[in-house]
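Per your request, structure below.
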């Protein structure tokens, strides 16, 4: 058996897999070989920060942007099963980039995330965590710290 299936995510032998708001499956294995910034939101305010983080990280990473992946996720484990369909439709994002919808806390379990409103996890090319930042808004200083960490391993 390859893994343990959950409604919106899966933990397999080769890592996690979580669907986005479009129903597409994203996996840890597909990110190997690239430095990754995993942006995880746990509230509506955190969800709004995802968009700011994405735009500001893209600006700040500049020349290393092609060698890194920015992965956005929403920890929606607090939403009752009956309301999950509505949650997919009501993401507070105005762009069309994917957001992983983690209804089962697959990512929170894998990366030992707290219940902070936003968490930024920087992963190296092998998927190991090298830095973690929690509860930060996408201020220029916060974005600079995360961008510097991911670009250091993304080169």
């Amino acid at each position: 058996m390859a893994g343990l299936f959950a409604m919106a995510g899966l933990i397999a032998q080769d890592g996690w897999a979580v669907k986005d708001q479009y129903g597409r499956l994203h996996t840890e294995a597909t990110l190997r070989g690239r430095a990754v910034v995993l942006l995880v939101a746990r509230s509506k305010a955190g969800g709004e920060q995802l968009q700011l983080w994405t735009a500001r990280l893209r600006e700040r990473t500049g020349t290393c942007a092609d060698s890194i992946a920015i992965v956005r996720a929403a920890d929606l484990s607090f939403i009752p099963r009956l309301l999950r369909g509505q949650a997919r439709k009501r993401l507070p994002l105005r762009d069309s980039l994917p957001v992983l919808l983690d209804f089962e806390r697959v990512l929170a379990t894998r990366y030992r995330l707290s219940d902070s409103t936003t968490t930024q996890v920087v992963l190296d090319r092998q998927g190991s965590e090298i830095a973690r930042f929690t509860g930060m808004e996408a201020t220029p200083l916060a974005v600079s710290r995360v961008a510097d960490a991911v670009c250091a391993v993304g080169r």
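The chain has a mean pLDDT of 83.

Regards,
D.
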